[in-house]
Amino acid sequence: MWNSSRTTGQSRELGLLLSLLLATALIPALCVLWFMAEAAQNERMAVRQKWSDLYQAELTAVQNSIESYWKTQSQRLDSYDDLPPAGRFEALAVHRLVDSAILFDEKGQLAYPAFCSFVEDDFASASNQSAQEINIRALMARGDEASALRFLAETLDEPAWKKQASIRRRLNLPYLGLWVLEKVGDRTTPAYRQNIDRLQRIASDYRLPMRSSQRLLLMQRLNALDPSREFPTLQAEEIALRLNSEWTLPENAFLRSVASNELWQLASSSRQVLGLFTTEGVLRRMNPLLETARLPGASVTLELATLQPGKDPFLVRLFGHTMPGWELRLYLDEPNPFAMAAEKRVAVYLWTAALVVALMAFLVFLLARYFIRQVRLNRLKNDFVATVSHELKTPLTSMRVLVDTLLDGRPHDARQSMEYLRLISKENERLSRLIDNFLTFSRMERNKRAFARAEVQPETIVQTAIDAVQERFNSGGFQLKTEMQPGKASIIGDRDALTTVLINLLDNAYKYSEADKRVTVRCREENGSVLFEVEDHGVGLSLRDSKRVFDRFYQVDQSLSRRVGGCGLGLSIVKFIVEAHGGSMEVKCQLGRGSVFTVKIPSARTGGS
Q1: Are 173 and 156 in contact (CB under 8 A)?
Q2: For residues 138 and 35, what is the distance between their CA atoms, to the nearest angstrom?
Q3: Is the N end or the C end of the chain the one with fewer CB atoms within 10 Å?
């Protein structure tokens, strides 16, 4: 009862110790995990901020390049100032410096384009027409289209009509030619193509004095006759006509909206040219600058501030007064492009945390295992002390009682006295074996292996061990059998120690054999080693117990051990002696059917010592 209470108390102490050890390891582990989680989150934020700063710097570079472009463009608008206004307008449009333009003279008066209402008059009216023009009209009236086209070509090739002082009279012939071409039925003849080529050259010749509205009308009508005809300045003229009187000359050289954000105007440095740009034209000129931006995982676009984005931009940069109404928008190619960049660093943190926690867990495991072993060892030692006390007390008590009986003269004859003396001798032998085991255990604890080694025959060891236990086995009703192989090699070792090995194995067989009391001792040579086997048919061992049976103080069944005696040192002493002689131990067992213990010692021929 007391032993059970003590065991329960020790178990509680062990549980408390393990709980404290677990808490000691768990709290730092949780702190490490929390710290690593915070570090990973901070790393993600740092990567995001790093990329954001990079994107901001690139946006600033793009913004500066765009602003620099328009500043340079404002200066370039003053190009071709040696040309007349119409020629300058053509040069600016053809070289794509502008989508259109409005030009002023030095006094700030409108120089080009010039508008008039004449364009809607009847081209074929007879007023103010020359004789050539009247003839052309007459040929068309008779239906002689071929002659009319030929005569028109001859007339257009003459330079006289271009020298007319009146712009209206000067343009009568081109307008009449346009009227003829629109009336001609067969538009596949060479004459028709030649005449339309002549009119195209006239409409595109900005050296010929002509109001912009008149030139635009020619271009539009010719383009309607033949859509394949290209007029580089047609769009520019249309934009200028569409703007009409909505333009205003700004005070600074910044891009400004005009005509409800459909057009954008930029004044030249001299304030003599007002460049006009469509929204598409602005974007077309800015795209090369946007493509130079080094933005990994993102793209930047220039968009109107009033345009609702299809998805939320990551960054937005307003131009302010330099390009009011425009803004740079940066879009991420993926929802979270920072993850890949951050995960590498985060993975380092997580692996570090995992390794630290794993190391702490491993150390806790080792410490717990060590503490458990120490607690178990202390428990076994306590049991050992109790068992030793009992084992020593029993023979000493018996000898004291027998000696007191002899001293009191109670035996009535010599035979009874001799019987008492034999009992005293038996208890003395038992006590001697216990003391020998304790001394051997003490040597094991000090790790001393001082053995008196000499060449000895295996038969001598077997016979000495059998002689030591023969009387005990006989009195217990055991059948002790030996099987010796002839011609066995000798071994180098301590005869007494090796004898102790066999005695302890035989003593173990004696204790744990119950109904079937057959015990066999074998000795043979095999593969350069001498094998000693002790076989019994007792209670046997389980597989789990067979792996621990050689541990110090280990006893399979405490109740059985208390009944038969012993302190759990016998087999551990056997293992200690055998390994000190360079040998090995092996046990084959079956629970309830006995065990076979095999000792293998190198023979003298193989150099065993």
Answers
A1: yes
A2: 101
A3: N
Under 8 Å between Cβ of 66 and 302:
yes
3-state SS assignment for residue 346: helix
* Beta carbons within 8 Å of 598's beta carbon, 6+ residues apart: 531, 532, 533, 585, 586, 587, 588
Domain ranges of the chain: 116-243, 450-606
Mean pLDDT of 327-354: 72
Does the structure show a pLDDT above 60 at 3? no
Domain made up of 450-606: CATH architecture: 2-Layer Sandwich (3.30)
User: What six digits make up the tokens of 280?
Assistant: 């598409």
Sign of CA dihedral 507, 512, 518, 519: negative
Start-end of H helices in 447-569: 458-475, 495-511, 543-546, 558-564
pLDDT of residue 310: 72
The DSSP call for residue 230 is -
Exposed/middle/buried for 315, CB within 10 Å: 0-12, 13-18, 19+? middle
Q: Which helix (H) or strand (E) element contains residue 315?
A: strand 315-318
Q: How many Cα neighbours within 13 Å face the side chain of 57?
A: 9
Residue-level length of the chain: 609
For the chain, the average pLDDT equals 79
Task: Indicate if the alpha-carbon torsion angle 14, 20, 23, 29 is positive or negative.
Answer: negative
SS3 452: coil
Dihedral angle over CA of 228, 230, 231, 233, nearest 10: 120
